[in-house]
Amino acid sequence: MSNAFDSSKPIFLQVRELIEDQIVNDQLKEGDQAPSTNQLVSFYKINHATVSKGINQLVEEGILYKKRGIGMFVAEGAKQTLVGQRKEAFVDNYVRSLVQEAEKLGITQDEIIELIKNTKGSEE
Amino acid sequence: MAAKVEMKNITLKFGKFEALKDISLTLESGKIHGLIGRNGAGKTSLLSLLAAFREPTQGQVEIDGEPVFENSEKMQQISFIFEKNYADEYEKVPAMLEFSERYRPNYDKDYANHLLKRFKLPLDKPIHKFSKGMQSALNVVIGLASRTPITIFDEAYLGMDAPAREIFYQEILADQAEHPRTFILSTHLVSEMDYLFDNVVIIDQGRLLLNEEYETISAQGASITGAADQVDAFVSGMKVLNEQKLGGTKSVMVYGTLTEQNQLTAREQGLEIGPVPLQDLFIHLTEEAH
To answer: pTM of this prediction?
Structure first.
């Protein structure tokens, strides 16, 4: 198993997220050919079955589509779909833990907003 | 071209010693099968029956439905690659490869040359002067370039360094995509090679312990980590393979599939569920049988 993956969640989900990430940050554009299962297996040294499971989910959800004998391509509207899904998950994945941790540390709401502004400012 | 292998109630005895005990298994055509077992489990015995180097004491080995023993047509379809003693081999690589070319109908000379280059094997040096790793690499070249419908590598990597093994694995995957065949790879290097396997066969003390698709097996194990008492409560009634404790934290490896409900409950209780590497499953499954 490659170091690119951790054991905290199923590897096929991590494979899937890896491709999703590349679509969301425009490394893979709509209509581009996605890496093949074989390429992913060789590169990350993870099992064929695991890679296929992750990829197939993306195909089922219409993020990727297969061209028989050629390979896998990024579907039109894929980025929009993914960004939409991720926005929905944003509250669960990030905001909730932020608020919980802030409560533990006694950070007020105004302070949180201030911290977010500062962080954003330092990144730009 | 690939072929299906079937073993029917195989028993192999050496005198009174039973090396293999009533093994029945089917190896699907066109897949990469990993054969794993502890030292002396019977891996090489099993493979030598498959390759028709030996006749089983009882039972039958069939390739595509035909018995393989003393069947020249079927034997031509099998490559059995194992560690050979090349101490008396004064020939050089080209002369060695001529044999494969003559006896293996699917032998691909260009592919062999490509492999020789990748492994950086010298063509002008007698083979007995090769290092052990280079001799193993030559075996791998012969096995891959023969493109037999059944290709068996019995710990073929012995003595090969990490970069050479990496080339070996890459070439198996690449050639399997282009020219599918039935590969059987026996190995001790489970964690290094498990990503290659479509199917996994585990034997232990001459018995078949398991023959399943990789995906099925990997879904069979889970590690559960969290507060000790919560973990204990969660795994009660499950088949526990291994336990580790660090302070108040406990990590338990279980064998069996977790239902969606199980997983949800675990997450609600703040328990972490992780996959179990094949290597660990192998260690604990074979430990238990002893």
So the answer is: 0.84
